[in-house]
Write a structure and sequence with these properties.
By secondary structure, this protein is α/β, with parallel strands linked by helices. It has a domain at 66-178: 3-Layer(aba) Sandwich (Rossmann fold), CATH 3.40.50.720. 39% of the residues lie in helices and 12% in strands. The chain has helices at 10-21, 38-44, 51-54, 94-97, 101-104, 109-117, 130-135, 155-167, 197-206, 211-225, 232-243, and strands spanning 2-6, 25-29, 47-48, 60-63, 85-88, 122-123, 147-150, 171-174. Strands 3-2-1-4-5-6 form a six-stranded parallel beta sheet. The chain has a two-stranded parallel sheet with strand order 7-8. Strand 7, helix 8 and strand 8 (171-174) form a beta-alpha-beta unit. Helix 1 packs across helix 2 (38-44) and helix 10 runs antiparallel to helix 11 (232-243). The longest helix has 15 residues, at 211-225. The protein is globular and about 45 Å long.
């Protein structure tokens, strides 16, 4: 499959590496231009391109960029065919992104993003830590394989995203509509808690929309207070406890 990835941070670069290893044709772009990505692209098996080239002649586009950058992407998608699946991996954190009224009033993050870029997205890979994505994937059928939620309104696009999630080493769970994707946002039991398929379904069902932002802010305060001393497993444990 031909895939464009915009964003070459921990998540975007890892997705490029994993999907290229599975035989997909990956174009990798960022906001600084292809010259800044030559070495990384070669290392992960992708082709460094401009953002404009990343959205041309592809079947899927994965967006893994700073949250506020979505407000500048509408023109980029103006000519992208409607049948190209666009996947959003982002999360909203007010301490980092600033307060956004619509989101603070309950609009699901990926619904807001769809409005910014002028087309619907599928939400996937947002509910996984970068280290989990890089190091804890397993072959399909493996015992204890971690599952990730995938939400969206287009059945074909969601199926494609779920296929790609599987290719990166994780079971994919249909998490419902894009409006329901708040159930996999920060502060919910499904967010960065490394659950298997059955447990992830229960976690999505247990999400509390009112409590989720409160959980998110409380957890950020805890993480910042212990910055530099937490192991990966400590972080997972804190997420599980803080959203239970």
């Amino acid at each position: 499959m031909k895939i464009g990835i915009i964003g070459a941070g921990n998540i975007g670069a890892t997705l490029a590496r994993k999907l290229a290893a599975e035989g997909h044709d990956i174009k990798l772009a960022n906001s600084k231009g292809p010259d800044s990505l030559r070495d990384l692209a070669q290392e992960v098996g992708a082709t460094a391109v401009s953002r404009e080239d990343a959205v041309k002649d592809v079947e899927a586009i994965i967006l893994s960029i700073p949250f506020l950058s979505y407000q500048d992407l509408a023109a980029l998608f103006a000519g992208v065919p409607a049948d190209v699946t666009v996947i959003d991996t982002s999360n909203y954190y007010p301490f980092r992104d600033g307060a956004i009224d619509g989101l603070d009033n309950g609009t699901a993050e990926s619904v807001w993003i769809s409005d910014q870029i002028g087309r619907p997205v599928i939400k996937a890979w947002n509910a996984v830590l970068a280290a989990t994505l890089a190091e804890r994937g397993k072959p399909a059928g493996s015992e204890g394989r971690i599952a990730l939620p995938v939400a969206g309104d287009d059945a074909k696009g969601k199926a494609l995203a779920m296929q790609l999630v599987d290719a990166t080493g994780f079971d994919a769970l249909d998490a419902g509509s894009l409006a329901d994707s708040w159930r996999q946002q920060p502060g919910t039991p499904a967010y960065c808690t490394e659950l298997t398929l059955g447990d992830l379904g229960s976690a999505l069902a247990a999400a509390d929309k009112r409590r989720a932002p409160e959980n998110r802010e409380a957890l950020i305060t805890q993480f910042m207070a212990r910055y530099g001393e937490l192991t990966h497993d400590d972080t997972i444990a804190m997420n599980r406890t803080g959203t239970a």
